[in-house]
Amino acid sequence: MSEYQYYEFLALDRPLTSNEMQQLRTFSTRARIAPTSFINEYNWGDFRGDVNRFMTKYFDAFVYFANWGTHELRFRLPKAGLDVSLAKRYCPSEQTSLRLAGEHTILTLWSEREEGEWEGDEGWMSSLAPLRADLMAGDLRCLYLGWLHCVGCDEVEEEEVEPPVPPGLQDLTAPLRALADFLRVDETLIEVAAEVSPPLAAERDSAEELRSWIQALPGPDKDSLLYRLAQESPMAVQREILRRFRETRRPQPPVPEAGGRTVGELLSTWNRQTQEKQRRAAEKKAREKARKEKEAAATRQTYLDGLAQRVPQAWQQVEALIQTHQPKRYDEAAQLLRDLCDLADRQDKTAEARAHLQALRDAHANKPSLLRRLDEAGLFS
To answer: Phi, psi at residue 309, to the nearest 5°?
Structure first.
């Protein structure tokens, strides 16, 4: 299999200018470049640009995957759109990391695993991009899944205590489930983590409450927001306003850390529940196997009952099949002889059937292809 790499960058807060698009073209003549995206695929070559520079200067989201099992997701967020000190607590290793870049913070989520089968482009960007807005709105589940991924990869010491557990882990959105798949976070590990996660309260913004909250904002805050509205992406400013409003009106703080679980406790529970699931799956498989065997035995019994009504005709049919001199018909004859022997065993007529079978073999001793099939069917063992 040849190498395959996929790069996709997405601009969300503002479109690229014509000049910026021309700058990007110098890095690739084949890339699909639009005012909001840069996409390229490589089967033999490699990306000539610098992902860090692209994210710092041009784009807000990045997805990369390769057929040797590497997955990478990055988000560029305004510093004001993320509690950096809190977010860093979910970033224990390079697989889930955070770095500052000017006025922005760049989150990297990275996974690598040797895959047995390459599935190609699954539309990851469209599935994962909504997580950026959720993260800026205060939803920490994306970060927690990144931390949990590190736990599952043995990147976190067992004595470490987990960071604040966000609400809503029992009810992951479609983008969060896509992230869990992208990072290959074990489903049972997520279930274990979700045991102490409170439900996610519904967000219903009241227009009156929002108007009153804005009116109560200090003058300098309003001036700052209006200035940013003129200089930055309106969507980014809108998200910050709504996040601040919701935090003030209906805060949803993470679970307190007092008495928080250690990584070792999480892993122990994960292993125990995984083994229990495997045990139940094995029992279910055994029950299903027994059911199928019982059904097959009943079907076989019914078939032999019918065969018992036409034994002479069946022996004649065997002879007719042999006389065709066709290998495929020899196979059918061998199977029918196997059925006749099983029926004879059931009727205590084994000796009679064996004598008939030996006579048939002697009569066709000059047909090695037939004799081989009779031996393979175990008729003379």
So the answer is: -85, -5
Q: 336 with 381: CB under 8 angstroms?
A: no
- The domain spans of the chain are 5-261, 301-376
Coil/strand/helix, residue 9: strand
DSSP 176-232: HHHHHHHHT--HHHHHHHGGGPPPPPP----HHHHHHHHHTS-HHHHHHHHHHHHHS
CB burial class (10 A; 0-12, 13-18, 19+) of residue 337? buried
C-alpha 321/C-alpha 315 separation (Å) is 10
User: In the numeric block, which tokens belong to residue 329?
Assistant: 């018909």
Mean pLDDT, the chain cut into blocks of 10 residues (381 residues total)? 85 92 92 94 87 94 92 91 89 94 92 67 86 89 96 93 93 94 95 89 67 84 79 70 67 50 92 90 92 92 92 92 91 91 90 89 90 86 65
CB-neighbour burial class of residue 29 (10 A; exposed 0-12, middle 13-18, buried 19+): exposed
Q: Is the dihedral of CA 378, 379, 380, 381 positive or negative?
A: positive
CB 147 within 8 A of CB 85: no
pTM: 0.71
